[in-house]
Write a structure and sequence with these properties.
Blueprint: H1 15-24, H2 27-34, H3 38-52, E1 57-59, E2 64-66, H4 68-96, E3 100-106, H5 110-125, E4 129-135, H6 142-145, E5 149-153, E6 162-165, E7 170-176, H7 178-181, E8 198-201, E9 211-215, E10 218-222, E11 229-230, H8 233-241, E12 246-250, H9 251-259, E13 264-266, E14 272-274, E15 277-281, H10 289-304
Parallel strand pairs: 3-4, 3-5, 8-11, 8-12
Antiparallel strand pairs: 1-2, 5-15, 6-15, 7-12, 7-13, 7-14, 9-10
Helix pairs in contact: 1-2, 1-3, 1-4, 2-3
C-alpha cells in the first residue's frame, strides 16, 4: 500500500472564525474583530461546517443563532481554543524574554568553577528564571532528558552541538597543603610523585584518570597512587587542604586556597593547560533568551575575574 507522506491540513481551519461569530452572533462584527472581510468569515464557517458534516449556525436576514450541533461544538471548542491561544502566548513569552526553567547538565567539577561564583548573582539579575542543576559525570542526551544545555571541561563535545566557551584555558595544578609538605621532599620531577600520596579521580566510565603533564614538547600521563579516589575535583581539593596528599585540580578551583596559603603548588614547570570550560546545546535556533542570558552572565563574570 502506498504511504501518505502529507499532513492533513485544516484540522483547525475556521475554528477562530466560528467562535467569533458565536460570540457576536453576527458575521460582520466577527469579521471586524478578526480584521477580515465578512465574506471570508462566511466562507471559513461554511468550510468548517462541511468538514464536520453539520450546520453550526441558523442564519436569517436579521439574526444569527447556533444550532444544537453548534452549541455543543462551541461549548467544547471554546475552552480548547483558549488553551491553544494561551499555550502560544506562553511559548512566545519564553522566546522573547528571559523567563522559565533553565535546566543544566554539568559535571560536579564545574559547580565550584562556574556555578557557585555566579549562580546567586544570576538569580538576582533574572528573577523570572528558575535554575535547575543536575550535577553528574555522565554525558546525558540533552534533548531526550529535557535539558537546555550542558557544561563540560574540555572540547569533547558532539559535532552536532553548538559549543560556547565560558572560560579561558587554565592550567591543571598539582597542589598540597603546607602540613602535608612539611617534612617531605617536595617533588621536583614527575617521577618524584612515586614517593608521594596522590589523590586520584575516577572517571564516569569507571577508569582512574592518570595525571597529565607537559615536559617540553611531550605530553606525559603519569600513573600515580595514593590513599583516596574520588569522583569529583571538589572532593580531591578538600582532601588536599586537609593534608591527605597531593591533588591535581583545575587552577581556578585551587586559586582561593593558594592565595590564603592553605595550598602550595608543586611541579609548576610541568603543569598542562586545559582548554577551559564550554557550554553546549543542540542548535542556534534553540537558544532561548533564558539560555542566552546565562551565557552572557557567565562570560561577563569570567572577563572580570
Amino acid at each position: 500500500m502506498k504511504q501518505n507522506f502529507t499532513i492533513r491540513q485544516g484540522a483547525l481551519d475556521g475554528l477562530e472564525a466560528c467562535l467569533a461569530v458565536a460570540r457576536h452572533r453576527n458575521f460582520r462584527r466577527a469579521a471586524a474583530e478578526l480584521a477580515v472581510s465578512p465574506s471570508a468569515i462566511s466562507q471559513a464557517v461554511r468550510t468548517l461546517e462541511a468538514r464536520l458534516g453539520a450546520a453550526l449556525f441558523i442564519r436569517t436576514t436579521r439574526s444569527v443563532g447556533l444550532t444544537e450541533a453548534g452549541q455543543r461544538f462551541v461549548s467544547r471548542a471554546r475552552p480548547a481554543f483558549e488553551e491553544l491561544v494561551a499555550a502560544g502566548e506562553a511559548a512566545r513569552d519564553l522566546g522573547q524574554r528571559p523567563t522559565g526553567l533553565l535546566r543544566l547538565a554539568v559535571p560536579r567539577a564545574v559547580v565550584p568553577l562556574i556555578l557557585e561564583p555566579v549562580i546567586a548573582a544570576f538569580c538576582q539579575a533574572y528573577p523570572e528564571i528558575e535554575v535547575e542543576i543536575a550535577a553528574s559525570e555522565v554525558m546525558v542526551d540533552l534533548a531526550a532528558q529535557g535539558f537546555d544545555a550542558g557544561i563540560r571541561l574540555g572540547q569533547l563535545i558532539a559535532p552536532d552541538m553548538i559549543a560556547v566557551r565560558l572560560t579561558q584555558p587554565f592550567p591543571f595544578m598539582v597542589v598540597g597543603s603546607p602540613g602535608y609538605l612539611d617534612g617531605r621532599k617536595r617533588p621536583r620531577r614527575i617521577d618524584d610523585l612515586r614517593q608521594h600520596a596522590c589523590l586520584r579521580l575516577r572517571r564516569a566510565n569507571g577508569s582512574i584518570a592518570p595525571w597529565p603533564f607537559i615536559d617540553g614538547n611531550r605530553t606525559i600521563e603519569a600513573v600515580v597512587s595514593g590513599p583516596l579516589i574520588a569522583h569529583d575535583y571538589a572532593t580531591l581539593l578538600g582532601a588536599a587542604i586537609q593534608g591527605v596528599g597531593l591533588a591535581q585540580v583545575p587552577g581556578p578551583l585551587a586559586r582561593a586556597a593558594m592565595e590564603d596559603g592553605r595550598l602550595l603548588q608543586v611541579l609548576a614547570p610541568f603543569a598542562i593547560t586545559g582548554p577551559g570550560v564550554f557550554l553546549y546545546y543542540p542548535g542556534k535556533r534553540q537558544a532561548l533568551p533564558k539560555l542566552r542570558a546565562f551565557i552572557e552572565h557567565v562570560r561577563y563574570r569570567d572577563k572580570r575575574s
